[in-house]
Amino acid sequence: MKTTIRLTKEFSFEAAHSLDGYDGACREIHGHSYRLFVTVKGVPLEDTSSPKYGMVMDFGALKRIVNEEVISRLDHSLVLRASELNAPLREVLAQRFSNVHFVNYQPTCENMLADFAARIGSRLPEGVTLHALKLHETATSFAEWYADDNR
């Protein structure tokens, strides 16, 4: 009998951002200790001759994908919206810092999750799908993304 299993791996990274045009304190540059939970779904491999027998996916492979697509890009970075207002700022920051990311969206927890879902989901092996993401911006505040909500 085939059983669908969900695997979750937790990641953390430090990043700063500001919300362009926001009407509160988050319009200022500030940082977070983000915690990202990545959940994938699939059926454990039934090929007894495979070294991955009984696994939906090797946790090491999931770690590599998330590190390449999210963590190594954003850890100790500054994330800002690539708005017209920020164009002069882009030039100045690029001369001084190497880990500044200008994105085509407001860098809220919600929008970051949508970006992460596209990046991670496209890299998963055949038969494994992205089920959910949860991103903690603070210890008590987080956003969640579910594949079932986005079909």
If you had to describe this structure to a student in words, what would you say it looks like?
Helices cover 26% and strands 32% of the residues. With 151 residues, it is an alpha/beta fold. A 6-stranded mixed β-sheet has the order 4-3-1-2-5-6, sandwiched between helices.
Helix-strand layout with pairing:
Layout: E1 5-17, E2 30-42, H1 59-74, E3 77-81, H2 87-96, E4 100-103, H3 109-121, E5 129-136, E6 142-146
Parallel strand pairs: 1-3, 3-4
Antiparallel strand pairs: 1-2, 2-5, 5-6
For this entry, give a set of tags.
151 residues, alpha/beta, 3 helices, 32% strand
> What does the main sheet amount to?
6 strands, mixed
Outline, from the CA principal axes? Answer: elongated
Uncertain segments: none
Q: What is the tally of beta strands? A: 6
- Strand coverage percent: 25-35%
Average pLDDT level: 95
Strand order of the largest sheet: 4-3-1-2-5-6
Could you say which structural class the secondary elements and strand pairing correspond to?
alpha/beta
Radius of gyration: 18 Å
Number of helices: 3
Percent helix, as a range, is: 25-40%
Elements, N to C (H/E): EEHEHEHEE
- What is the CA–CA distance across the termini? 27 Å
